[in-house]
Specification:
Shape: globular
Number of strands: 25
Helix content: 25-40%
Mean pLDDT: 97
Low-confidence stretches: none
Radius of gyration: 23 Å
Largest sheet: 8 strands, parallel, barrel
CATH topology of the largest domain: TIM Barrel
CATH superfamily of the largest domain: Glycosidases
Distance between the termini: 35 Å
């Protein structure tokens, strides 16, 4: 059997995990809202029309923050139509996804849902078809105590206390030609600078996210980041990143190598932020908000058919990727990559949360169920809080078609000092061979293995369904630790969560 060695030491600190790295995303897109989180006629619906079966699955993950209401949707979002008495709200054409938005669920309802889910809100403003004034009006509605036009409007709508939303996105993917109200680098730089200045006059306590490139493959990357930050650097706190991966070529070996591309993307954006910092002779550090990431490719044909040939429906089944086992491995790899960069990646949003490229799916008149990607997300959120440690790894490698030689094992370690727990997340990307990991955690005196959670499957294309879970985690036999060392088997093509705690 192939062997690898890993040393984990308390001194090898990367940075503290910001819990918002386990955020997610609800957009007015497809069935994310209607028949997703909100369905008044469903048998599990509460007094607000929220599906309690969905709420339970969301709370099990402990999602700390949810981005809303988009996404592409936000670039033609009229927030005033999403608040107040439902019977007075206008229906709107959603130009992003060519659907009809009834506005029977809006900002006021989402704020209630978020409170029930135990999540904060990451709010986006429309810098596509609207601008500074509307962003300020929305902020006033949400965060001002009262005594002004829009704060009093909120009070009239039944919410006396402000929503107190602290994290705001300055538009969405404004570099993309598909975006309604697409901007050039200089146009967006100026608009975001002036919007940020105005919003912080209303509430200086908020944090702002500037739009970065829509993906690593954009022709303007990373010039977009460098140019826009030269305008708004002094007023924003984060720059966004978006990236999706897929296996359209049906090359599983190379597919799992794409997490290496994600790491390079992150490093490039960090370098660009620090370049602008140097230009400005600034002491301020811009961190990253990776507020869209996931696997997305299974549903492209369906999406194109509905938006092109069957437009203006209410909540059609858009972007409903059905994820298989190798997609779960990819999501695990992406989570590890985010954690490895926890010193600069402070916010991340799995896009999205329910029905739309999501870990949670619903049947309109049936149950909510977990997709394969639900489990790595669950494990990382539950056990990946604390301080990230960089393991020293003597790895094995294998050959891929497009990425050359890549490491078999991709891993990161999180130390929760308060709970006296150590968690190792590891994916064995080798599709053909198990691997023995010789682990050295001697700096963690008197620690024992608490559990080894494994997710593996002989069929990389295995999927979960509403009727049956074919992909799910199991518990491996715990290995004894002797003098701070243990030998652990990482199965071929496997997601592993190896947890240790101090002997009490």
């Amino acid at each position: 059997m192939k062997k690898a060695k890993m040393i984990v030491d308390k001194a090898f600190k990367v940075g503290d995990v910001d819990k918002r790295i386990y955020g997610s995303f609800i957009e007015h897109l497809g069935r994310a809202v209607y028949t997703g989180i909100y369905q008044p006629e469903h048998e599990t619906a509460d007094e607000n029309g929220f599906r309690k079966d969905v709420l339970k699955l969301v709370k099990d993950i402990d999602v700390p923050i949810v981005r809303y209401p988009g996404g592409n949707y936000v670039s033609n979002f009229f927030w005033e139509d999403s608040v107040g008495p439902i019977e007075q709200r206008a229906k709107r054409l959603d130009l992003a996804w060519r659907t009809l938005e009834p506005n029977t669920f809006g900002l006021d309802e989402f704020a209630k849902w978020s409170e029930k889910a135990g999540s904060d809100i990451m709010m986006a403003v429309n810098l596509g078809t609207r601008g500074i004034a509307d962003a300020c009006n929305l902020l006033e509605y949400c965060n001002h105590q009262g005594g002004s036009k829009y704060s009093d409007m909120r009070i009239e709508h039944g919410r006396k206390d402000p929503y107190n939303i602290k994290l705001w996105c300055l538009g969405n993917e404004m570099d993309g030609s598909w975006q309604v109200g697409h901007k050039t680098m200089d146009e967006y730089g100026r608009l975001s600078e002036e919007t940020a200045k105005a919003m912080k006059l209303i509430d200086p306590s908020i944090e702002l996210v500037s739009c970065g490139s829509s993906s690593l493959d954009m022709p303007t990357f990373p010039k977009w980041e460098a140019t826009t930050l030269e305008y708004n650097y002094d007023y924003v706190d984060y720059i966004s990143m978006h990236q999706y991966y897929g296996n359209a070529a049906n090359n599983s070996n190379d597919y799992l190598a794409k997490s290496d591309d994600m790491d390079k993307f992150i490093k490039s954006v960090i370098s660009t932020c620090d370049y602008v910092k140097a230009i400005k002779r600034s002491n301020k550090k811009i961190n990253l908000s990776f507020d869209e990431w996931n696997v997305w490719f299974h549903s492209k044909e369906q999406e194109n058919d509905i938006t092109t040939n069957h437009p203006w429906q209410i909540a059609p089944p858009l972007l409903e990727d059905h994820y298989n086992f190798e997609d779960a491995l990819m999501v695990g790899l992406m989570l590890i990559t985010l954690l490895k960069n926890a010193d600069r990646v402070k916010i991340a949003c799995l896009a999205q949360l329910v029905n739309v490229i999501a870990p949670i799916m619903t049947e309109k008149d049936g149950n909510a169920w977990r997709q394969t990607i639900y489990y790595p997300y669950l494990h990382a959120s539950k056990y990946g809080r604390g301080t990230v440690l960089q393991p020293i790894l003597e790895n094995q490698q294998h050959l891929t078609s497009d990425h050359g030689m890549i490491d078999d094992i991709v891993s990161v370690t999180v130390y929760n000092e308060e709970a006296e727990e150590l968690t190792i997340f590891a994916v064995n990307r080798n599709l053909d061979e198990d691997l023995e990991l010789n682990l050295d955690i001697r700096s963690f005196d008197d620690y024992k293995m608490k559990e080894h959670i494994v997710m593996t499957n002989n069929d990389l294309k295995a999927v979960n369904t509403p009727e049956k879970e074919n992909v799910y985690p199991v518990y491996a036999e715990n290995e004894a630790i002797s003098d701070g060392k243990a030998n652990i088997i990482l199965k071929k093509a496997s997601w592993n969560v190896i947890r240790f705690n101090k002997n009490k």
